[in-house]
Amino acid sequence: MKKFSLLYEPWIHVLRNGRIEEIGLEEVLLDAHNIVRIDTPSPLEEAALHRLLLAVLHRALEGPKRLEDALELWRKGRFPDDPIRAYLSRYRERFFLFHPEAPFFQVADLPEKPAPMPWTKLVPELASGNNSTLSDYNTDKDPSRASYAQAARALLVHQAFAVSGTINRLEVTSGTAGPLASAAVFLPTGDTLFQTLLFNLVPYSTQDFASDAPIWEQEPLMTHNLTGGRKEMLFSGRTRVYTWLSRAVRFLDTGDGVQYMAYGPGVKPEATQFRDPMLAYTGGIKAPAPWRLLAERSFWRDLDSMLHPKTHSMPATLEHANELLSYLADDKEEDYLALRVIGQVLDQRKRGKVLDIRRDVYPIPRGALTALMQLKLNEAVRKANDLGSKLSDLAQSLARDVLGPNRRDAASSLARSLPLERLYWFSLDASFPEFLQKLGENGATEFWLECICSAARHAWASTRISLGTQARHLASIERAERRFQDLMRKICKERKHGQGNGLRQAPSETQV
């Protein structure tokens, strides 16, 4: 029977009027101008929900076809009710979580054999099978029961972020990864959900509309379509990719929630040159690959590479948001947008293992993507990386000095255990957002150099204390101290004079 309409039942958490509320999909879109944001502790859930909302808007509005259309919507201050209501009414049958023929994002006749799976398999943070437990202590034998709302959100997350791995169902050995399994998602956000969605509604032409279709506009898939990996589809079309069926799922209703589900392989993607608007790409035009988040390395440390136009491309959402913001200069005091970089970090040796889930937030001032701002940004990141590399060399040298030249493996382990690099980058991770806010100011360069100096000194002080107090330790520290102070003198000289071989004082916008 039909049950739990995602259009009208409460299932999306939003911040509105100073309170966190749970509301349906239609209300989220129609009242987006009064909603501050989607409010969820899960970064992956935030990304997946935004992609669902964007898919609905693109199809309901049949656009925006040009930047001017997005500007017109911005000036009206809200999304138009009639086309959204009409569109959702047309496809209302496809938005029931339980439905005899077409349950939302599921396969109606999917068998439970060989055995039903716990619903917790859908969420990387929860424990299931041989998944790493990041923040939960469920077991397959006794999984917690999800509410319908929780199950719906988990389903969206899994379809977008499913990792490749063994399935052994429906004559398919292993499943392919979801569209965002190893990619960093770039989500520019504004003061309201309405602004955020407009920032991410990259122009969607008539041709785009005609060659695309989200999952609820397609014929419902059945088990025979997916058996043996038969179902293949071009990995292209914006809303098709935003709503890609990575896995076959059918929730088993307990009457008041979901504890288990039928599970199987999804649609096999046929390779194309499609570029997801919410992703950045590396490798140039010939071999583009989505930008990934790396373990123990914050995104901003590679920002200078991402801004290199010959080998990398910025996410279309960020370019569109920046362009939209620049046109609004005369309309409003919109000086900043907040860029959220979201994704999961996978083990490079075991792609099916999730090591971490991240959501980093960076303030992006108006004009940050101009050539001048990019120059200052690139120089700042390069200077931090250069000093970080020198500190790494210093740690290696110190460890070899302590242990002697014949214990290289032990010296490498000792160097990694020292807090020098770790504390240096930890401090700069906290300082970089503030530097971004100051990027358009004349004092931004000096501020960043001071951050670098302070981070290095604090990290070195902690390293001195951590190494030990035996005579050989003290002698090695004294020798390393001289190298460290040489590094600091060079950095401080640049900070004092505002120029040098590395980070030069860039001209102001008015001088340019």
List the helices and strands and how they pair.
Elements: E1 3-5, E2 12-16, E3 19-23, H1 25-30, E4 35-38, H2 43-61, H3 67-76, H4 81-90, E5 96-98, E6 117-118, H5 148-161, E7 165-169, E8 172-175, E9 185-189, H6 193-200, H7 206-210, H8 223-226, E10 232-234, H9 238-242, E11 247-253, E12 258-265, E13 268-270, E14 281-282, E15 289-290, H10 303-306, E16 312-313, H11 316-327, E17 336-346, E18 354-365, H12 371-403, H13 408-417, H14 420-437, H15 444-467, H16 471-497
Parallel strand pairs: 10-13
Antiparallel strand pairs: 1-5, 2-3, 2-4, 6-12, 7-8, 9-17, 11-12, 14-15, 14-16, 17-18
Structure explained in plain terms:
The chain contains 16 helices and 18 strands. The model is unreliable at 499-512 (pLDDT under 50). A three-stranded antiparallel beta sheet has the order 3-2-4. A three-stranded antiparallel beta sheet has the order 6-12-11, with helices on one face. A three-stranded antiparallel beta sheet has the order 9-17-18. The protein starts with a strand and ends in a 15-residue tail after the last helix. The longest helix has 33 residues, at 371-403. It is 41% helix and 17% strand. By secondary structure, the protein is α+β, with helices and mostly antiparallel strands.
